[in-house]
Amino acid sequence: MIYKISILVVLAIVYTSAEYVSYDNYKVYKLQPKTEEQVELLRKLQHTKGYSFWTLFDYVKVDREVRIMLESKNEREFENYMKSVGLDATKTVEDVQSLIDAQLKRPQNVGRNILEYDWTYYPNLEEVEEWMNKTAERHPNVVTLLDIGRSIEGRPIRGIKIDYKKRDKPVMGVLEGTLHAREWITTVTLTWLANEFLNSKDENVRFLAENIVWHIFPVTNPDGFVYTFTDDRMWRKNRNPSNFTSCVASNVRDDLSNGVDLNRNFGFLWMTVGASQNPCAQTFAGQTAFSEPESRALANYVLDLKNQGELLYYMAFHSYSQMILVPYSHTAGANVLEVPNYADLFEIAIKGAEKLTAVHNIPYQVGTSADILYEVSGSGFDWVKGEAKVPIVHLFELRDLGQYGFLLPPEQIIPNNEEVMAAILEMDRVTRKIGYYSPVSDSGYTLKINALLLIAAVMFGFV
Ligand SMILES: [Zn+2]
After folding, report:
1. Where is the signal peptide (predicted)?
2. pLDDT of residue 26
């Protein structure tokens, strides 16, 4: 009897975990609190069953736009309540599931040859890995497959290195994607950048591809990423079940405690601001700094690279908000100068953002997270700056501003990627102009031309 019951329990667990959470008819509203009282009401609403915020808790502040997702059965009640407290709520999404379906759609005849992937749809982990494998096969002298450790569920954390072997001592850059599982646009931004580095004929892209050795990790949270395809599209954290607890008090699904926010788990000012010790929170920072294998793997890899040559760049990719963030995420106002080269990082980002906007007219903001988004501690890119002391460190919050949020339509992948490339090219140009590194081939060439001109001038002078 006990045996039978346990089989039933096991079956029930398997059945529940295999079901894809449906967001059928879920609505999204946007609104902007005008007073502290309204902010307080909204914060309470976050702990009410049937409501989940696209906007993180710390972002709910006076005069800031908040996006709230709710089940259709709460729609009337929500609208009435908002009216009664003087808040103007506008519905922006009629059916969340239809946006998810659009993101899951595959063109016909897809999958025969992954190298024909054309960035018109969102690939899953298997496809991303297959793409990396085949890309490495096609460019055997330039591309190396990377495997930097295992996730909590034992998946490899994989990437590719693009190395044209231009320098005796390489200048390197790391691109980090999908640390937050649901931020799918970041995955395809990084595969796109890698593909352009390998195949673009544009001379500026060629320069950037060949003068820097790129270490590109499209998916740094593979368990969470897989989970967004199999179970819950809106999953953010990793899948560490060791902090499992009842989330009844927080009014969220118990499953939410099965994960740690990897971008709060790094060992730089861990758990000081903008992070939670509640496993049911989206920003749960873990039991200790670096408690998670994914954050440890990334950090160890960064430290290893520092021994191999000059690690100049680290760029983290997240969504959504349209921002280029400068470290540190806990500093605002005059305190931003805690980062010794803050002025350079800001200039690099602001020039990059200008070029980005010029491509498709998409506005981007630049600043520290505390200044323009919310205070954060324990994030990956802050650790890279503060502890690993990498010179040029930025974090992109990609499209959009919340209209689709994490559910950005696939038609926006390529425009997003084009503008990000424009930003990165400009950021590299400014970085060089300030003097962080000089190109190998160009400087040699310029020197030769100058020498010839000098000789010519001297000769003419004498003639
Ligand atoms: Zn993120």
Report:
1. 1-18
2. 97
- Kindly give the distance from the C-alpha atom of residue 180 to the centroid of ligand 1, in angstroms, as a whole number: 5
Fold designation for 21-94: Alpha-Beta Plaits (3.30.70)
* 65 catalytic per annotation: no
Residue intervals in the chain for CATH 3.40.630.10: 114-434
Residue 226: predicted pLDDT: 98
Residue in the structure block whose two tokens are 């084009």: 418
CA distances from 226 to 4, 82, 172, 238, 328 (A): 31, 36, 29, 10, 30
Tell me, what's the pLDDT at 13?
A: 44
Amino acid at the residue 423? A
Q: What HEC string does 198-211 produce?
A: HHCCCHHHHHHHHH
Task: Label residue 437 left, alpha or beta by phi (over 0 means left) and psi (-120 to 50 means alpha).
Answer: beta
80 alpha carbon – ligand 1 mean position (Å):
32
The amino acid occupying position 288 is T
Question: Active-site residue among 176, 375, 397, 426?
Answer: 397
Cα–ligand 1 centroid distance for 183 (angstroms)? 6
**Tokens linked to 9:** 């329990």
- Residues listed for the chain: 463
Name the residue with tokens 């974090």: 395
Cβ-Cβ contacts under 8 Å for 319 (sequence gap 6 or more): 183, 184, 185, 186, 397, 398, 399, 405, 406, 408
CATH of 114-434, one of 3.40.720.10, 2.60.40.10, 3.40.630.10, 3.30.565.10: 3.40.630.10
What is residue 58's predicted lDDT score, i.e. its pLDDT?
77
| Phi-psi category of residue 234: left, alpha or beta, with phi > 0 → left and psi -120 to 50 → alpha | alpha
Radius of gyration of the chain (CA): 24
How many whole angstroms from 442 Cα to the centroid of ligand 1? 37
Cβ neighbours of residue 215 under 8 Å, at least 6 residues apart?
146, 159, 160, 161, 172, 173, 174, 175, 301, 305
DSSP E strands, 134-219:
143-150, 156-162, 171-176, 213-217
Strands 392-398 and 323-325 come out as antiparallel
How many A from CA of 182 to the centre of ligand 1?
8
Q: How far away, in angstroms, is 184 Cα from ligand 1 center?
A: 10
